[in-house]
Amino acid sequence: MAGFQVTEVQKALKGANYPMDGAALSELAQSNGADQELVDALKGVREVDGPNTVMQELKGQLGGPTDG
Predict the structure, then answer these.
(1) What is the structure's pLDDT at 22?
(2) Concatenated DSSP letters for the chain?
(3) Cα(11)–Cα(55) distance, integer angstroms
(4) pTM summary value
(5) CA 68, CA 43: separation in Å to the nearest integer?
């Protein structure tokens, strides 16, 4: 797995209304145009109460390549 940029996750979760579970997060990310890999990763996230908790849940999957 390549990893995700924090900004990529933030963009994917724009408009999130916490608390949200993985199913709702992945649906939102998909509607915001996120990559399928990120959508799939979010499906495994437990219910979270905010963006910081999402980042904690994705720990180990963050920090992808910074050059485009």
Answers:
(1) 97
(2) ---B-HHHHHHHTTT--SSB-HHHHHHHHHHTT--HHHHHHHHT---BSSHHHHHHHTTTSB---S--
(3) 13
(4) 0.85
(5) 26
